Amino acid sequence: MQRVCFLLKVREDRVAEYRERHASVWPEMREALSSTGWHNYSLFLREDGLLVGYLETEDFEAARAGMETTEVNGRWQAEMGPLFETLDGSRPDEAMKPLTEVFHLA
Fold this sequence. Notes:
The chain has helices at 15-23, 27-35, 60-68, 71-80, 92-95, and strands spanning 2-9, 39-45, 50-57. The chain is α+β, with helices and mostly antiparallel strands and 106 residues long. The longest helix has 10 residues, at 71-80. It starts with a strand and ends in an 11-residue tail after the last helix. It holds the Pfam family rhaM.
């Protein structure tokens, strides 16, 4: 099982909206994440907009590719994209760059 952690930056003036949207993630988005291999998925958000994501999956690239094939993911990314700082032309899900794990207490 891979443990994946990534950072993104929510626009500081949109932090409250980001929290609100994630308080009621669409059921079909939740189902798509689960069915494509996103397990133990959590998002943590600081008041300045720093977003930390964590998930466990058998294969992160396969999990990302699986989400890419779902219609709901395209709609979700289109709605979430404007809430983020510079994504270099990418959607939020495309801008996730996994951090290198340097320690894990098993």
